[in-house]
Design goal:
Elements lengths: L1 H4 L5 E4 L3 H8 L8 H9 L4 E4 L2 H5 L4 E4 L5 E2 L4 E2 L2 H13 L4 E4 L7 H9 L4 E3 L9 H6 L4 E3 L4 H13 L7 E3 L2 H32 L3 H9 L20 H11 L7 H21 L5 E5 L14 H11 L3 E5 L7 E2 L2 E4 L2 H7 L2 E3 L14 E2 L8
Parallel strand pairs: 1-2, 3-6, 6-7, 8-9, 10-11, 10-14, 11-13, 14-15
Antiparallel strand pairs: 4-5, 12-13
Helix pairs in contact: 9-10, 9-11, 9-12, 11-12, 12-13
């Protein structure tokens, strides 16, 4: 968001992490995103970075809040404390600013926080971004949603449209709670599609069938399509696991069966994959990459970690190849950045996605990657 908006506006990026700020000031991206790296290095951006909240908020027309909202399994809700800490700072420093929440929040949060904090200077505008492609998806947005129909909402939407490279971007102005629901239902639908093709794949494995032939035939129906249909070890990453659980929590007083099934399907798939691997009686299992997906450096909630934990729970020795980690162990398992040694030591290599660097040992690679895509 900071890079996108600084193409045509003065933007100050605020972060609590001084090392991250130093990295950005040096023109380097602290996350793996090729477009962000390119823009920081090559584009003429009106963008500065600071750890000083006073400097960031003073004089701002809009304050975009994109802090973490991790799912709390104790409360069954997102932890929104970081958002509210920013809101309190902004209200104190610059009460005239409009706060735009980009963090994913529970359905009904904006109306609730307005009442609790005594301010109506906050609106919600959900993000729909992919790991490693965040700036690309802002430059070419499928849609822009703002949870308010007002002059300030239209002004903010116009900033996003102006920053984008795409023409004729659909812009939708809704009530705040409807915008929150759009975000959670969108991600839960994506999780459902992942779970569907994973369960199709589990069926095919159990019956000795060719998963790809079945998926190809199913996908030729134009109502279904051939996109987002590649089997995996389960949906992972920062968004889908927590967003599906949050939506399920919002259903506490509404009858449902499907949302629960989507959440449970992810655990079922990991159990199935782990048992399928154990049936091969491996002595040493290599885990090829902990990252959530190709082109990402995010390990958070990656599905392969669930497979790893299940194998270790059955006493299987596990060694991890993950050059991004920079550590020599991960939850009690050895981590190496020596690919050749890793290939030699493991008698079975678990890879969520097949890559060229494993081609020479493909006979001992276990993957459900049928299409070579995320």
């Amino acid at each position: 968001m900071a890079v996108l908006l600084s193409r045509h506006n003065t933007v100050v990026g605020l972060d609590l992490d001084a090392d991250r700020i130093d990295t950005l000031r040096a023109g380097r991206s602290p996350i793996h995103d090729d477009d962000i790296s390119r823009f920081l290095a090559e584009e003429d951006l009106d963008l500065t970075f600071t750890t000083d909240a006073e400097q960031a908020h003073a004089g701002a027309d809009f304050v975009v809040i994109a802090t973490p909202t991790n799912y709390d399994p104790v409360t069954n809700y997102f932890d929104t404390s970081s958002i509210e800490a920013v809101m309190r700072d902004v209200t104190r420093i610059n009460p005239d600013a409009t706060m735009v929440v980009k963090s994913t929040v529970p359905v009904g949060y904006i109306e609730d926080v307005r009442e609790r904090l005594g301010t109506d200077a906050v609106i919600f505008s959900p993000e729909f971004l992919r790991e490693g492609r965040a700036l690309h998806d802002n430059l070419h947005p499928a849609r822009i949603v703002v949870g308010e129909d007002s002059d300030r909402a239209r002004a903010f939407a116009e900033l996003l449209v102006k920053g984008a490279d795409a023409d004729d971007v659909p812009v939708l102005f809704t009530e705040p709670t409807e915008a929150e629901a759009i975000k959670l239902f969108s991600n839960t639908y994506l999780a459902m599609r992942v779970a569907y093709f994973n369960e199709l794949d589990s069926f095919a494995i159990s019956r000795g069938l060719d998963s790809r032939q079945i998926i190809d035939g199913v996908g030729l129906d134009p109502r279904i399509g051939t996109h987002y249909n590649n089997p995996s070890f389960g949906y992972g990453g920062y968004c889908l696991p927590k967003d599906t659980k949050q939506l399920l929590a919002n259903y506490s007083d509404v009858p449902q069966t499907l949302i629960s099934a989507i959440v449970e399907a992810n655990t079922t798939r990991k159990d199935f994959i782990a048992f399928d691997i154990l049936d091969r009686a491996p002595q040493v299992v290599g885990i090829h990459r902990l990252i959530m997906k190709t082109g990402s450096d995010n390990f958070r909630e990656s599905s392969v970690q669930g497979i790893m934990k299940r194998l270790k729970g059955k006493g299987v020795e596990v060694v991890v190849y993950e050059p991004e980690l920079g550590e020599d162990s991960w939850f009690g398992s050895e981590v190496t950045s020596d690919l050749a040694s890793f290939k030699e030591r493991a008698d079975l290599i678990v890879a969520n996605r097949m890559v060229e660097e494993l081609a020479d040992v493909k006979d001992k690679v276990y993957t459900r990657d049928l299409f070579g895509a995320d």
